Every structure is written in structure tokens, then in C-alpha cells.
């Protein structure tokens, strides 16, 4: 036996012995040389708020570097602008309306849907996370045990001092270093960095007092809010938290370079939904679902520095990760994936529109947070195509931001929310209240080029027949219960920890509650 072969065998044996996860030797051997995956997701960060997009009041050098050395996407969308269902789509490659309970916020994640991280862990990858993974909600397997949907947690390290009261004490980058130390040498890994920022609550005035910002730095206040000092300060406090998230990404990239791992690491940076402001997070407008996205992979992305205008969905991420890991979808054990791998864009050298078929995305929502009788949701489906956003509202009599008597609880509390609520009876400004908290018609159409904040409904002036027809046809093909006449099921799924666990126990006991509800 030659020295080289003997050395290779010794290395392989060492990997098998020292790995903290039990893998079959065949899986380990097949995984060697495959790319690492670093998935980076902020909590409530809107499209456009990064230097790479030309924003001056949010500084994001790490995100800008990923865009500069990889690809910057202009048309990336989550199918649902709320944490749990958005992250569920990332993990499964399916739209929320295809995920039963997981189509809601604060759900019990159905045991039958595997995540890409679980699959990678089964196929020779070392998987882990720091910060916020999937959630909020409960993820249990069929035996009632907690699932590691996004990998083994690495959360031991904390910052010596928090930058502001609202920013997490987690040392995300330090925890990533711990993960890399634990990963078997020469072994591929997949890591999920889920920042808790810029989720509320913020330390009011911190953007100015601790970030050195000025309210005059903001070039444009969205048309859905009043332009006041309180609103501008709220925006700057949000910006400071985005910058904290980006700072940890910068340290992670430096750590990869130091260890010689950056070249063969696929780095994906995005957010789960839009900023936690009225008319954004939790709604179904452009500012809710349109998100930042930059991807780098020095070893494999052709012609880095490109800006791509193809429409891409969060459902495209899981199939991308499976493909680069050389795992066939049909052999993954995951439910049928709706999304389409992004590797075809990686391999192209084009900017602008790359794949002609990527000309639209679907979005929607069901139940987000409490705020309506019986915790009812606000069902919407929509399509973004050709610079237009068409939305269909299935419950015209419900309040989109939650009921007035609850304080519109389906919208996060904030200085900006207070400012918008104050416009309700103000001549010349009451349209701001109506846009975020007033009841909506069945059909809405917006021109995103001239009206990115979705303030002017064109449904009564411009035909939307083709968009609605395409939307409903694709939803029917995807088995959406809302289109098939069983939409009530989304309102009947359990909400809250106690009720979710009881609901799960009933399923384990063999009760047919899901079938009974689906037949309503």
C-alpha cells in the first residue's frame, strides 16, 4: 500500500472517529470535497436597506462584499412576510400554503416535512446554528421529541457588553468559530446564522446617540408613514440593528478566510421578512415580502459582481442547497419541492434577466399573530410579475392589522405605529391610517415601479384578469387548501404553546382531527 493511500485512509478513519455525529462511512466518503454552506438570515430586514442597493443611512460592508464578490439579487421574495412561515419555506422549498400548520405563524411544525438541514445532516454534513433558527413555534417529531430543524445550537458565547438594550447579547461570530472548531476536519458543513436583529424592541434614539446618525441622513420616508422626527428616529434605530447583524457577518467571513475555507463556501445572506413597521412585516405588500439577497461562492459563481433581476423565491433555496450537496430531491425524504435551484444563475455570466422563465413569484399569508376573534388569520394570495403586484383578499370583512379593540395587535408596537394610528381622523393624512389598518377590497393591484410602497390600488382602473387567472391556476396546481375550498383549516390549527402540544398529542393518539377539519 502506497504512502498516499495509507495517509488518506488514516484521515478518513480519524474523521469517522472524531465526528460528533454518527454517519455511515459511505456517506462521509461521498461528502468529502463538497461545498460548505453558510446561510445568513436577519430577523425583519427590508429590501434596499444596504449599501449595495445604494442606501446611505444603513451601512452594511459585509453584505456589500458578498454582493460584490458574488451576485446581488433585485427581485428576491419570501412567500410570506412573517417569521415562521417564511423560514419554513426556506427549510422545505415549499410555499406556506403547502405546509399545513407551518403555513401559519406560531405553529406546530408538521412532522412529515423535513428540513434541508436535517437532510444534509443525514448525508454527511456537519450542521449547526447560532441565534434564531426556525420559529416561533414548536417542532416535534412523530414521537413528540424536539427537532433540530436548523442544526445543533451553538449559543454559548455572549458579548461582554450589549451595543443597545434591544440588541441581543449573543456573540454570533464567536459561536460560529466554536462550530468550526467542532466540525470534523475536511468534512463539509452547513451553518445557519439567524440574527435576532433588527427585530423589535429598539432603544429609542440609539441610532443617533450610539450610531452617530442624523435624521437628515434618510433620503426618503416611505409614503405609507408620516414624515416626522419620531418616525425618522425609529428608522435609524432599526438601521443600527441591521448594522450589528452585518458586523457579525463580517467577522464570520474573516474567520472563513483565516481558516482557508471561504473559497469553497456558499454564502447566502437575506432576511425572513420586511422591517417591523406598519404596512411592512406581516402584511403582503412590496415592503413585506421583497427582501435583500446576496450570494457568493468564490469557487463556483461565474463572473462575480453581477446584479440579477430574475424573480427568485425563498422556495428556491432548499433545492439549491440540495443540488450543491449532490443530493437528489427524490432521494432526500423531503416532500415534493416547489422551488427551483439557483445554480443555473450561478453558472451564467449574465446580469439583468438571466433565466426567462423566472418571471414571477407567488406570495400570501394566513394567520400571523393574535388580534382577531378566535385568532383568525387574514388570508391573502398574490403574484408579483412584470413590475406589478396583484393581491386577492379572501376576507373583506376582517381587519388586516388586527381588530381595533385589540389595538391592531397583528402589527408590532412602535413609534411609527403610534404615528400612523394618530392620522386616522387627520384631513390630508387619514389615508396613511387606511393603508395600514383599514379594511381592504377583494382585489388590489399596484405598479411597483411608480408606487413601491403600494399606496394606490389600480384594480378598478387596470385589468388584472391574466394575473389573477395565473395565480389561481398555480395555487390549485400546488394544492392550496384556500383555493380548493378548505381554507378554514388555517384558522383551526392550534395557536399558543399549550394548545399546540395538546394538538400534537391528539395526533399521536391517532385522532383524525386534521381530516375532519379539512372536510369542513
Question: Quick one: how many beta strands?
Answer: 14
Query: First CA to last CA: what distance?
Result: 69 Å
* CATH classification, class level of the largest domain: Alpha Beta
- Helix/strand-derived class? alpha/beta
Strand order of the largest sheet: 6-4-7-1-8-9-2-10
What keyword list fits this structure?
520 residues; 2 domains; eight-stranded mixed beta sheet; 31% helix; globular; disordered N terminus
How would you describe this protein?
The protein is an alpha/beta fold and 520 residues long. The chain has 2 domains: 35-358, Alkaline Phosphatase, subunit A; 363-518, no CATH class. The chain contains 17 helices and 14 strands. The chain has helices spanning 3-18, 25-31, 61-68, 83-92, 116-122, 172-182, 206-209, 229-258, 286-289, 317-324, 343-347, 415-421, 430-437, 465-477, 489-492, 497-508, 513-518; strands at 36-42, 71-77, 108-109, 126-131, 138-139, 152-153, 189-194, 265-271, 290-296, 306-313, 360-365, 380-385, 388-393, 443-447. An 8-stranded mixed beta sheet has the order 6-4-7-1-8-9-2-10, with helices on both faces. A hairpin with a 2-residue loop joins strand 12 and strand 13. The longest helix has 30 residues, at 229-258. The chain is globular, with a radius of gyration of 23 Å. Residues 1-25 and 512-520 have low confidence and may be disordered.
